[in-house]
Amino acid sequence: QVQVAETGGGLVHIGGSLRLSCSASGIIFGDYHVNWYRQPPGKDRDWIARISDDGIVSTYANSVKGRFTLSRNNAQNTADLQMNSLKPEDTAVYYCNIVERAGRFHYWGLGTQVTVSS
To answer: How many CA atoms lie within 13 A of 16 on its CB side?
Structure first.
């Protein structure tokens, strides 16, 4: 059984930092690309970042580029999202989505809440 879980959310002040982590079990983690999405209150879920299965290529939405950084450790089955210079508009539930490199399987975590306040 495949399980995906996000941790590290919480309440942070404007300009602060948080580090989210995505962990997965029941799969060979290195066979999966990792995407991060977020869903602000009352809005749609949007893609914000992706790291390739081997960790070499990372891409970011314009809204987070230069502030968020992806990393992963395939030996530990984890992928992290370092979030710096946080803004109120970063407030959302953040989701990890893993996608098998051939696109045959994908799995979601349940999300973790990030709240940025003054």
So the answer is: 15
- What is the bridge-based pairing of β-strands 112-117 and 10-13? parallel
SS3 (DSSP) at 31: helix
Give the residue among 42, 26, 12 at the shortest CA–CA distance from 109.
26
Instruction: Give the N- to C-terminal CA distance of the chain in Å, as an integer.
Output: 41
Residue labelled with tokens 């992290």: 80
Please state the three-class secondary structure of 33-78 as a single string: EEEEEEECCCCCCEEEEEECCCCCCEEECCCCCCCEEEEEECCCCE
Span 16-30, pLDDT tens digits: 999 999 999 999 999
- Residues 51-72 have a mean pLDDT of 98
For residue 85, the SS3 value is coil
Q: What is the mean pLDDT of the chain?
A: 97
Q: What number is the average pLDDT over the span 85-111?
A: 97
